[in-house]
Amino acid sequence: MQRITGVDVARGLAVLGMLTAHVGPGGPDDPWPWSLAQVVDGRSAALFVLLSGISVALISGGSAPVSGIRRVQARAKILVRAFLVLGIGVAVILLGTPIAVILPTYAVLFACATPLLGAAPRRLLGGAAAVAAFGPLLHLALQEAFLHLPGREFTDLLVGDFYPAVVWFAYVLVGLAVGRMDLRDRGVRLRLLGAGVLLAVAAHAASALLTRALAGDPTLVALVTTEPHSSSGLEVVANTGVGLAVLALCLIVADAVPALVSPLAATGALALTAYTGQLVVIALLGESVVWEPETGTWLAFLGVTVLACWLWRAALGRGPLERLLHTLAARAADVSPDVLPPRDADAVPAARD
Questions:
Q1: Which long-range CB contacts under 8 A does 247-250 form with residues at least 24 apart?
Q2: Which residues of the chain have pLDDT under 70?
Q3: How many Cα atoms within 13 Å fall on the side-chain side of residue 167?
Q4: Could you count the other beta carbons within 10 Å of the beta carbon of residue 210?
Q5: Can you tell me the distance from the alpha carbon of 277 to that of 291, in angstroms, rounded to the nearest whole number?
Q6: H or E segment to which residue 308 belongs
Q7: Any idea what DSSP says for residue 326?
Q8: Do residues 102 and 160 make contact, with C-beta atoms less than 8 angstroms apart?
Q9: Less packed terminus of the chain by CB within 10 Å, N or C?
Q10: Which residue, 229, 174, 235, is CA-closest to 206?
Q11: What is the pTM of this model?
Q12: What pLDDT score does 337 carry?
């Protein structure tokens, strides 16, 4: 898998953003018109999933997609990683923290991208647009029907309140399309930045106008709001725009001042370990760190997370969970074409194809 420092920086910001949403000061009852926790809520998770699509693209060749046996190997790696992330996600859910854990949905979305490794970027972006347009309608239609079915844990992956796969798959498709571009090219980065800003501004502006116009109909408002985790089409567009802009800026800054962003890049390279680790610590400290957030606790979480990842990356390379995923995925992908024994000239002639 190719490593691009700017992508790791963006992933590090996504992890710290989700941490801030979990234990950061401020929230819906904050007296200020906005708080940092409110700003990162939903957007950080969307960036995290968008970057998963880029990871799928990089595993399968980046801007030069692999084919043949190498594509089979890439699919094996992706599926093994998805299976392991799903297991880790289930394990941290069992800790009982008051956190909506993203890892199970992340794993499912990661696996769902495997049939699309050969798809062209335009088709992927068209698919993302279709999911953003129809996914929210499907989410609303199926959520009530699935509410009374057994196996709520499974149905929540598809149509849950926080990370419904029928909507969030749009982020993976965008990420896979972006990962097929040459992210080291300056022109690509500037286009991503421009497109991101345009999408974010347009979606938030359209949402503000439509929300006011449809204020008397809660169902229609739910389809046009950009509130975090509303899973509306406009929220998907807005979060995608923010994600693309953040990614472009990270790519630019990482090349300009690599030493300055190396702690964030290390955090992004150890994203699974960092995310899982914070949930374990929250479980040990108790629910009060989530329901009664304090600035000091939040800063301690940020500082320890970044410092621990930075030191581990410098001394030991891959994080413990990342090393597990890499090792098992590499073993699963250790395949080669069958070598047939030489045919005896005096043997019975082989049947024609």
A1: 247/6, 247/7, 247/10, 247/47, 247/50, 247/51, 247/54, 247/178, 247/192, 247/196, 248/189, 248/190, 248/192, 248/193, 248/196, 249/193, 250/6, 250/7, 250/9, 250/10, 250/13
A2: 1-2, 27-35, 147-153, 335-353
A3: 28
A4: 17
A5: 19
A6: helix 295-316
A7: H
A8: no
A9: C
A10: 235
A11: 0.90
A12: 57
3-state secondary structure of 42: coil
Helical pair 152-159 and 121-146, crossing angle rounded to 10 deg = 140
The kind and range of the H/E element at 8 are helix 5-23
Q: How far is CA 190 from the centre of its chain?
A: 22
pLDDT attached to residue 38: 76
**Each residue of 10-39: pLDDT tens digit?**
999 999 999 999 998 875 555 544 567 778
- B/e letters for 55-83, b = 16+ CB within 10 Å, e = fewer, are bbbbbbbbbebbeeeebebbbbbbbbbbb
Alpha-helical (H) ranges within 94-232 are 103-112, 121-146, 152-159, 165-179, 186-213, 218-224
* Polymer length of the chain: 353
Vertex 142 angle, CA 139 and 143, to 5°: 75
Angle at 178 between CA 175 and CA 181, to 5 degrees: 150
